[in-house]
Amino acid sequence: MAKNEPAETDIPRTRGSGTQSVYTILRREILAMTLAPGSPLDEVRLSERFGMSRTPIREALLRLSADGLVTTLPNRNTIVATIDFASLPPYFDALTLMYRVTTRGAAMRATPQAMGEIRKRQAEFAAAVAAHDAFAMIEANREFHVAIAELAGNSYYTTFFARLLDEGRRILRLYYRTFDDRLPRQYVDEHEEMIAAIEARDVERSDRLAIKHAEQIVRQIQDYIARDLGQPIDLAAS
Amino acid sequence: MAKNEPAETDIPRTRGSGTQSVYTILRREILAMTLAPGSPLDEVRLSERFGMSRTPIREALLRLSADGLVTTLPNRNTIVATIDFASLPPYFDALTLMYRVTTRGAAMRATPQAMGEIRKRQAEFAAAVAAHDAFAMIEANREFHVAIAELAGNSYYTTFFARLLDEGRRILRLYYRTFDDRLPRQYVDEHEEMIAAIEARDVERSDRLAIKHAEQIVRQIQDYIARDLGQPIDLAAS
DNA sequence: GGGCTATTTCCTGTCGACAATATGTGCAAT
DNA sequence: ATTGCACATATTGTCGACAGGAAATAGCCC
């Protein structure tokens, strides 16, 4: 890399936007796995990259740390949070529960006009699947479920669920990396069923669909992990 | 206040402990309602109080902001987060759900030695009730339920639940302020029942007790709010 | 040559200062 | 008296610099 690499933004940014933009960019890169888990995040290097002082960088890292996306090693450095496969079963439990609670809640409060946002997200999801764009699909999936959670109208659930879904984005990214373009049309159909059940205000059916949807995802990822861990380890590489 | 008020700590603190201690102290004061909701938190004044520069103060405030305990008004100041009574119903929903999930989970994984921590917390809770110490009781109650959540072994639930319980501490503080020393022995008994059900690994009974316990708390606080809002407002005070 | 210790180096934690912005205040005009 | 604008003030957002710790390196003793 050249010595005087121009910073990411040379236009003088507005006051207060520094932390925000760094946070948003790093967050996106972490979730997209552009920044691999465990990668060191050097404050000085980041400040050079973004063309600002270390202070806004530090604040962005602090926010990421609160989100659980990075780990701060005191007096040493900050690294991208690693993915702990041991805690996947609890993760799936929590995810399933939130799928259920938010879908049930949405079914209880569904109104015709409130379905618009959800349908829009579903359309984006379907488009991403059709375009074989795994990244866009994962993002649209998150937005779809968050939209349902917002309809349910409990901000505690929405916040917690959004966090779980974000954490899951990295795992899904690992998962879909293995079969790049064969994205599951099945999820699109399941989403459609959920929309129908919510719109019909059928709470119990929504609940069953949420469970089914969650089980689907959990099973697929567990299969992937089992397959992956079953593969012979290349001892020579160490 | 004197001009050269000595700072809270004059001993030179160890590197990295600045942010941590400020965070801990402010957090405690906010949860104990020593710092009233809406109180302004001035960085300069805090830096004078704690005898350190604004930087560690800012980082502590940032962490509190991530916890939802303070609200940052951009380019203006930071205030202690207000209590939004409108969002109490969703809060109670979430709290009840987490009571249930963690108690069920604990009942599924109960082992004789794992009950020790829970019993210890319950003893502290009972002692606080006997001593008519509302603050200690609220804190012990939180620790009791977090201990159950930890036995359940799902860190996602534990984290979320702990956050909910913390947020509830301020509401409970409002509540118990009204009848200072008449602390409900009833909760002690309910806790005992829960311990027994968990130890017996009776999941369904644990669940029922969790629901009952949650309903109890919700009802009492709702009564309190209804009573409070029903009281005539002293217009002269404005 | 190997293990222990001193030194160096890199990076973070903290500091004081400056710049930008929002609120409050005073004045003038209607 | 009230509204609008300019100014003053207070508080945050950002910066560059320095100091303290931990890992990496070099030196020393065996």
Automatic annotation (TrEMBL), chains A, B:
UniProt name for this protein: Transcriptional regulator, GntR family
Domain HTH gntR-type span(s) in chain numbering: 16-83
GO molecular function: DNA binding; DNA-binding transcription factor activity
Organism in which the protein naturally occurs: Neorhizobium galegae bv. officinalis
Pfam families the UniProt entry points to: FCD, GntR
Entry-linked SMART domains: FCD, HTH_GNTR
Sorted UniProt keywords: DNA-binding, Transcription, Transcription regulation
PANTHER family in the cross-refs: HTH-TYPE TRANSCRIPTIONAL REPRESSOR NANR, TRANSCRIPTIONAL REGULATOR, GNTR FAMILY
InterPro entries documented for this protein: GntR_C, TF_FadR/GntR_C, Tscrpt_reg_HTH_GntR, WH-like_DNA-bd_sf, WH_DNA-bd_sf
Record bears the keyword Cell membrane: no
Statement: the UniProt record of this protein carries the keyword Cell membrane: no
